[in-house]
Structures are given as C-alpha cells and as structure tokens.
Design a protein that fits this description.
Chain B: It comes from Martelella endophytica. The complex is a heterodimer of chains A (510) and B (307). With 510 residues, chain A is an alpha+beta fold. Chain A is 32% helix and 23% strand. Chain A has two domains: 255 residues, 3-Layer(aba) Sandwich (D-Maltodextrin-Binding Protein, domain 2); 209 residues, Dipeptide-binding Protein, Domain 3 (Dipeptide-binding Protein, domain 3, Roll). The N terminus of chain A is likely disordered. The mean pLDDT of chain B is 85. In chain B, helix 1 runs antiparallel to helix 12 and helix 5 crosses helix 8. Classes of the chains: A alpha+beta (510), B mainly alpha (307).
C-alpha cells in the first residue's frame, strides 16, 4: 500500500512538472454526458439495494418485464404483453423476441425464471429487495418466450414493481460463470447502456448499447460521478463538468437559475410528507381535535414560501400520480377561526401542549415543522418540535408508539400505488402503524388487494383515502417535487416522477 | 533504541485495540444497518430485517463480531462493506493513497511557506514584516477550512474556471484541497517557527557563529534551523493526526475519494466493517507517525541518541 502512496504522490508530482501545458478543464467528448449521483450504492446487482441512486443508474443498464415511462405510465418492457388469469393468481407474460444481454447471451423465459428464483432464493434473502416480491410463489417456463407467474395471492402492485429495482432481469449464464460478487461490480443487463468501468466511490462509466431493443441511445458515453455534497455537485454543474444533478436543494435553485448555461427542471415527485397523529392518547385521540389542528395550518403558504413552490398540496398520503388518488378529495381548508371553534367544542383549553417529532438532519422539514408550530400557537396550542436522529426515529420512536402527539411521516411510494402506502401505514399491526386499530379500515384495505378489476379497485382505494381524511389520521402536507439542475446543452431529458433518470433519448448539443 | 522501538510498538498495538474496540462498540449503539439498508423499501417486515441482519452477521454477539474483526486485521481481510459488498480492503487500498497524497501536499505547502516566513518574522522582530506576517497568520488561523474551500471553488473553479471544483483527477485537482489544508497548517507553523527561532537566535552559539563571520543565511538556515527542528518535527507529527481528522471536511467539500469520505459514508450507512477498518487504519497511521517522530529525534539531535 505504501508503494501505491508513493506512486500516487510521485505521479502527481511528475504530472505537475510535465503537465503545465495541459488544459485545466477536461473537454467533454461529443455525445458524452456526466450525471452527478449523491451516493454510490456499492453494488450494481438489482437485488442488493433500495437506493433511489441505484434506480437512476440501474434503469439504464437493466430492463424489467414491464416499463414505466417518463410520465409514469406502465407499458411493455421485456414482456410485450401479459394476461392476468385464475382470478389474479397467475400472470402469463409473452416475452420480447430477439433481445440479447450485453454479453451476447440471449434473453428468454429461462432468464426470467432464473432472475426470480435468485431473487426469492438464498441470494435474494440477503438483500432488501426480496420482501417486495413475496407474492410470487414460482415462475414457470411455458416455452422459449412465455412464462407464467404463480402467485400466492393476487398482487395488484406487482406489475408496476416489475418495472424496476429488484425485478430487473439478469443474465443466468454470465452470473453462473462469474459469480455474484463479480456481478456486483461488473453488471450486465439488456438495457440501453453497457457497463465499461467502475471506481467505487468515484465514478461509473457506461457506453451506448447500439443493439438496444428500444432503439440505440443518442449518447455514446454516459458517466456517473458520485458527489455527496449538493453544493459541490452544483459547483461541478456550473463548471460544466457535470451535465445533470438530481435532488437540487430548494435553497440552491437561485444559484442554478442565475447561471445562463443552466436550468432547473422539476416534476411531481414520488415522496409525500405529512404529520401523523397519536390517535391513542392525549388531545389528538379526538378526531375533531385532529381536524382542528389540520385546519389551523396554512399549508399553501408553507409550500409557496418555505418550499419555493416546489411542492403540491395533498389531501391523502399520496401524490396526484399515485393510483388511488382522488382529485375530488380536497384537503381541509385553512381556517384558524373554525379550528378554534372545534377545539373549544372538544374541550381543549388554550395553552394545551403538543409535541411534533421529526427526523433530524433535513433542514427543510425542520423549517416546515417550526412554521406548523407557529400556526398552532395562533389557535392557542403550544407546540414544540423535537428532532430525533433518523435511525432512532425509524427504529424506536415510531414503531414502538413512543411519539409525541404528532410525528413526521415521509413516504417514497415508488410503486405509485396507494395500496403500498395505505396498507403499511394504516393496517392494524403494521410496523408504521403504532396507534391505529380500526377494523373497518382493515377490512377496506384487505378487500381491495385481490381485486382484478382495475376501475373497481381504484374506487376502493379512493374510498380508503376518503375514510382516512374523514378520521383525520394525519395532517397531509405536500408532495415534494423532484428537482434537477441541468446544463442547457442536454436535449430531450424528461424528468420522471419516480426519480429514475432514463437517458436513452437524451442527446448533447454541440 | 531497539528496546525503545519495541516498547513503543507494544504501546501502539494496545492503543489500536482500545480505539477499535471503542469505535466498534459505539457505532453499534447508533442504529441498525438492516434498517438503514431498507430505508427506501415500504413493505419490510421484521422477518425480512432479521434475514438481512443474519446475512450481514450483525445478529451475533458483539464480542464474536469484534473477534472476527481482529482475526481479519491480522490477515488484512476486513470483510465486505454492508453497502453493496465491496471488499473493505479494496476500498481502503484506493482511499488511503488519496488521503496520504493530500496530506503530503498540504504538509509540503505548509512547510515550504512557513519556514521562510517564520524566519523572516523572527529576524525582523517587531518591525513591519513581522507585524504583517503575524496578522496574516492570525487571519489564516481564523478561517474555518470549509469556508476557505468554498471560496476557492467559487473563484478558481467557477468564476475563472481554472481548476476542477471537485474530484481527484489530474494534478490540477490536487491544488485546491491541498491549499485549503495547507493554509490552516501554515498559519500555525509560522508562529511556531517564529517563536522557536527567536529563542534560538538569542543563544550564545549563534553569537559565536556570527562572530566567526559566517554569512547570515548560513547562520539562519544551517545552525539555527537545525536547532529549531526538534520542536518543529514534534509539532508536525502531532499536526499530522489533526490533519487526518480535518481531512473529513475538506474531502467532503472537494469530493475527494479518500479515507474521510469513506468514514463519512460508513457512519451514515452504519457500515460497521468499513468504519472499523477506516478508524483502525487512521489510528495506526497516527501511532506510526508519532513513532517516526521519536526516531527522527535521534537522527536530528545526536544527544538524544546517547540518552
């Protein structure tokens, strides 16, 4: 190791002497795009991680059986069509023909079976992805281009899950020959870009897959750089060494907007924020008090001032893109006078105290919580904000029901289906439901799951959202936009609401 | 000397054990890596978490895990990162040279600037040059290093677009992070050189040297500087430890792929194997530098050798 230290140091000294004539900023080759990613997931195996950062990269290397486009619309991916059979307990997929993996291996029914056997077997058990696919009992090869998925129970969200993350199709022969460990750092898929090289914690290089079934990408090279500090990523963007960055902090929007070479793009994001109530004890046990507290807070002003307008109001715990969202359901209006009246009727004396528990480390949420506390003060409620370290908050405080009267909940909702949120947040006994035990709600949640009639199920989900709003189980706050900083020379980039940065139709102007 | 080195080595081993034990224990109190790994996943049950804990090996008793780590230390196999499974030794093998190169250049910048400036301040004590140098050093000391880093990036990285704002690539990428670290060190070292130089210049043998008609440069750089070297080397050794600590901030701002970045990410992800190994390597290095400093005494000052 010492040797390589000397080598690095000596090399940099030599380059320093010899390279005075060299240009300082490297010029970007035609058709090469560089994307800043906040975190290196450490493994490119689809079953190893749950990071949004993985999705931004992995979606360009791998494909799933289904495909969700930039508008979050679900369509054919590696499967060209599917039939839901046996009351939702079997799904038959017809697979795309003539597709090969980057190493030349053919994509077929065996590859699909191998992928899911691996995900549901020992290898998958070590990672976080398996839990999302446990409704799959087995995958049966019917012929070269047809597979049947046998399910333990109908799973309405499965098709959308198949579009990403753990369900990405992997090459059996390559994996068998090289092993999982090698695959982690040398991924092979069927996607628009092929793996070239990977420096852990530094960067990942990809090149165009000219044989991509969806058409050859317009970029010849694609580089991802891992930059943890968003201020640093913005600096790189301004210096022209990064073309695109995700998660641009709201506070840095003016910097990017102020640079004539750059622009800010934003779209409805998958993440929603709210404050949930302790419905078991204290003043928030009473639904009318919960409604009053919700009415006391001017969420529209919080969005326009604190969030720079980069969010939209929600009436239930989902964004407008989520399956199950009801556009007719309106959030409780901002009405401090009405709130005071409700509180008085409920017998809550002025000066009553509530504690708002939040996750520390997110300055935006901290400001929002302070603003909420101030609004509550106006209606005579004394609110204190208590931040907890993330891990303590998620592991101990919320699941154990040790929160104050109100606590922060933010939810990714990557499947864009309300079931995946509502069931886990409101069904009795679920980890994220420390206080509720409502048999009516449980029954409603259970009832929609096996429904194969899409329209019918949507109605049911909307009814659930309505019921929850009526019970005022939470103070819905907002769906936060996904905000990107981008160099104007990038053409054709459409930000997707699921944060997966798809770049096969993007090009770089001269 | 051999006995002394062996004694110091034993002390070093004990210190490393104590540090790693403390760090390994402390990080396990801060959170569950299985939970951190599955943060984005909605539908995770306790059974899933338990399975992941088993796969990571964190469900075993603490001392079993710590013993595994010690076993790995001997064979230089620190296991795999929880985040993706990259072998920890591979991560360290790339991060350590990056950090050492940064530390080397920062120390070099600071020594090259602070010695002549410190001597100049000492020889012109109380006069204009001394005042200026002292004020500058005070200014340098008062900078928070992340602020200096951000200013450098703004001016040289963005406004003038002369240097890459972040990352480790060609030699130009070394300039801003090394200068950031170097400036802080320089400010301290200038004062140190000035003070020790003043003491030395008042001693009799300097008067003798001057009386013999030696040139002032020779007096300063050959005779006086050598006698200033002991406190300087001691201090630079200590400074190296502090430098490795301060490097976390500078590495993060400049996205430098070194040990600081590695440790920072490991803490956020509760990546025990990476954090344990990073802390161990850093403490070993600090211990090793202190050992080298002790040995260097003997080389600089023959009187110490015979003691």
């Amino acid at each position: 190791m010492l040797k390589s230290v000397f080598k690095t140091t000596a090399a940099s000294a030599l380059v320093a002497l010899a390279g005075l004539a060299a240009t300082a900023s490297p010029s970007l080759a035609d058709g090469k795009m560089t994307v800043a990613i906040a975190l290196d997931p450490g493994s490119w195996d689809p079953i190893d991680t749950f990071l949004v950062a993985w999705g931004a990269v992995g979606s360009n290397i791998f494909d799933g059986l289904t495909y969700r486009d930039e508008n979050a619309k679900l369509g054919p991916g590696l499967a060209t069509s599917w039939d839901v059979l046996d009351d939702g307990k079997r799904i038959r997929f017809s697979l795309r023909e003539g597709v090969t993996f980057h190493d030349g291996e053919p994509f077929n029914a065996d590859a699909v079976k191998y992928t899911f056997d691996r995900l549901l077997g020992d290898e998958g058990a070590k990672g976080p992805q398996r839990a999302n696919y446990t409704s799959i009992e087995s995958v049966e090869v019917i012929d070269e281009n047809t597979v049947d998925f046998h399910l333990t129970a109908p799973d309405p969200v499965l098709l959308t899950k198949l579009a990403g993350y753990g369900a990405m199709i992997v090459p059996p022969k390559y994996l068998e020959e090289n092993g999982d460990e090698y695959f982690n750092t040398h991924p092979v898929g069927t996607g628009p870009f092929k793996f070239v090289s990977y420096n852990p914690k530094v960067d990942l290089d990809l090149e165009a897959n000219p044989d991509y079934w969806g058409g050859a990408p317009k970029l010849s090279e694609l580089q991802y750089r891992f930059i943890a500090e968003s201020a640093t990523a913005v600096a790189e963007l301004q210096a022209g060494r990064v073309d695109l960055m995700e998660d641009l902090p709201i506070s840095m929007i003016p910097v990017v907007e102020g640079d004539s070479k750059l622009e800010v793009l934003s779209t409805t994001g998958p993440t929603v924020y709210g404050l949930r109530y302790n419905t078991r004890d204290g003043i928030t046990k009473d639904a009318n008090v919960r409604k009053a507290l919700t009415m006391a807070v001017d969420r529209a002003t919080i969005i326009s001032s604190l969030l720079g307008g980069e969010a939209s109001e929600i009436a239930s715990f989902q964004s407008a893109l989520s399956f199950g969202d009801d556009p007719d359901l309106k959030p409780l209006p901002y009405d401090p006078e009405g709130a005071k009246k409700l509180l008085e009727e409920a017998g809550v004396a002025p000066g009553a105290e509530v504690q708002i528990d939040i996750r520390a480390g997110n300055s935006t949420m901290n400001e929002v919580a302070q603003a909420i506390a101030a609004y509550l003060q106006v209606v005579g409620i004394k609110a204190t904000v208590k931040p907890y370290e993330s891990s303590v908050f998620l592991n101990d405080i919320v699941p154990q029901g040790k929160t104050g009267a109100m606590f922060q909940q933010s939810w990714g909702g990557w499947t864009l289906d309300y079931d995946n949120t509502a069931y886990l947040l409101y069904h009795t006994g679920e980890k994220w439901n420390p206080y509720g035990n409502d048999t009516t709600l449980d029954a409603m949640l259970e009832e929609q799951r096996p429904m194969t009639d899409v329209a019918e199920r949507e109605k049911k989900l909307q009814a659930i959202a309505g019921y929850i709003a009526d019970q005022a189980l939470e103070m819905p706050l907002y769906a936060l936009n996904s905000i990107y900083g981008i160099n104007k020379r990038v053409e054709g980039f459409v930000p997707a609401p699921d944060n997966r940065i798809k770049l096969n139709n993007v090009s770089i102007a001269e | 000397m051999a006995g002394f080195i062996i004694k110091r080595l034993l002390q070093a081993i004990f210190a490393t054990l104590a540090v790693t034990l403390l760090v390994s224990f402390a990080i396990r109190l801060t959170g569950d890596p299985a939970l951190m790994l599955t943060q984005g996943a909605g539908s995770i049950t306790e059974a899933d978490l338990e399975r992941i804990r088993e796969a990571l090996g964190v469900n075993r008793p603490f001392f079993v895990q710590y013993f595994e780590f010690l076993k790995g230390m001997v064979t230089f196999d620190f296991g795999r990162s929880f985040l993706g499974g990259t072998p920890v030794s591979r991560l360290i093998a790339t991060a350590l040279p990056a950090t050492l190169a940064l530390a080397f250049w920062s120390m070099l910048i600071s020594v090259v600037i602070s010695i002549p400036l410190g001597i100049k301040a000492a020889t012109s004590r109380g006069r204009f040059a001394d005042q200026i140098i002292r004020v500058l050093s005070l200014v340098g000391l008062s900078f928070p290093n992340f602020w200096l880093a951000i200013m450098l990036v703004l001016v040289f990285g963005i406004t003038w677009n002369l240097l890459p704002p972040s990352g480790m690539s060609d030699w130009t990428s070394y300039i801003m992070p090394s200068v950031t670290m170097g400036v802080i060190l320089t400010a301290v070292n200038v004062r140190l050189v000035r003070t020790t130089m003043l003491e030395t210049l008042n001693s009799q043998y300097i008067m003798v040297a001057r009386a013999k008609g030696l040139s002032e440069t020779r007096v300063l750089y050959k005779h006086a500087l050598r006698n200033c070297a002991i406190p300087l080397v001691t201090y630079l050794g200590l400074q190296f430890g502090g430098l490795l600590g301060g490097i976390v901030v500078v590495e993060r701002v400049f996205n430098w792929p070194g040990m600081g970045t590695l440790a920072f990410d490991a803490v956020s992800a509760r990546d025990y194997p990476v954090l344990q190994a990073t802390i161990m390597v850093l403490s070993l290095m600090i211990i090793a530098v202190n050992l080298l400093v002790d040995i260097a005494y003997g080389l600089i000052d023959p009187r110490i050798r015979t003691e």
